[in-house]
Amino acid sequence: MTESLHFVKTGSAPELHLLDCCDSDLDNVNINQRKRKRMEDDIHMLFEQFSSKFSAKLLDFKNELESKITDVQTDINSVIKSDLNSIKTKLTTIEVNQSQLFADMESMKSAINFQDNAQKDLVKRVDHVCETSGTQGSDIARMQTKIRKLEFELNDQQQRDRAFNLELTGVPERPKEDLTAYYCSIVKYLDVPSSASDLVHITRVRPINPVPGRPKAIVLKLNSRPLRDSILSAARAKKGFQTSDIGIPGESKKIFVNEHLTPSNKLLHKNTREKARAAQFRFVWVRDGKIFARKNETSPTIRIMDSSDLRKIV
C-alpha cells in the first residue's frame, strides 16, 4: 500500500487518474469478495439444512425399510413354518403309505410265490397227462367205437320192436275222437282185409318238437307184420289219400302212412332228405326201419346207417 502511494506521489497526472481507477476496482473486488463469501455462507447453510433434512428423511426411510423388512421376515417365517408343518404332515403320510406299500409288496410276493408253486405243480401234472395221453387216447378211441356200436345196436333193437307198428300223420284231432274207427275207415279205403280186432294198441303221440297247428301223429300196433306191410303197400299204391276219403268232415287234408321209426332214425331220415334235396337226389325211402337213398333210376342205392353216411350223398 505504501508502494502504491509512493508511486502516486512520483507519478504524473495521468498516473493519478490510473490510481483512482485502481482504488475503485479494488473496492469492487472487496465488495464482490464479501458478496461471494455471503453467498458461500448461504450455500453452506442451505447445504447444511438440506443435509439435515436429507439425513432425517434418510433415517425415516431407513426406519420404515427396517420395519417393512421386519414384517416381511415375520411373514416369511410364518409361511416357512406353515410349509414346514405341511411338509412334516405329508412326510408322515408318505411314511404311513410307504409302510402299507411294503406290506402290500410282501403280500404280493407271497402270492407270486404261491402262484409259481401252483404253476410248477400244474406243469408236472400236464407232463404226466402228456405221458399217459398216448395210451389213454387209444383207450378213448376204442371206448367211443364201442359206445357207437352199442348205440347202434340199441337203436336197431328199438326199431325191431316197432316192426308191427304204423304211424299216421295228418289226421285232424277232434274231441272224443274214435281212433279205432279211423283205422277201420283207412283199411276199408285201402281195400285191405282187417278189422278192429287186428289192433293191439292205438294212440296219439306227442312229437319231440311240436309244431303249432299240426295234429299229433297216431301210432298203432298190429298183431302181425304181414298185415302192416299190406297196409303200407296199399297206401303207397294209392300215392296218398285225403281225410275226406275216410269220412272225416271239414277241410280235406293229406294223410300219410309210414313205418314207425325210432327218434334217432326219424332225425336221420329228416337229415337224409335235406341232404338229398341239396344234392339233387331223386329218391329217399324207408324199408323195414332202414333208410336208403338213390340219385336216379340208374345210380346205386346208398344205405344210410348213421350221420357219417350222409357224406356219401354228393
UniProtKB/TrEMBL annotation:
InterPro entries: FP_C (IPR057251). Pfam families: Baculo_FP_2nd (PF25298). Residues 262-314 form the FP protein C-terminal domain. This is FP protein C-terminal domain-containing protein. It comes from Loxostege sticticalis. The lineage of its organism: Eukaryota, Metazoa, Ecdysozoa, Arthropoda, Hexapoda.
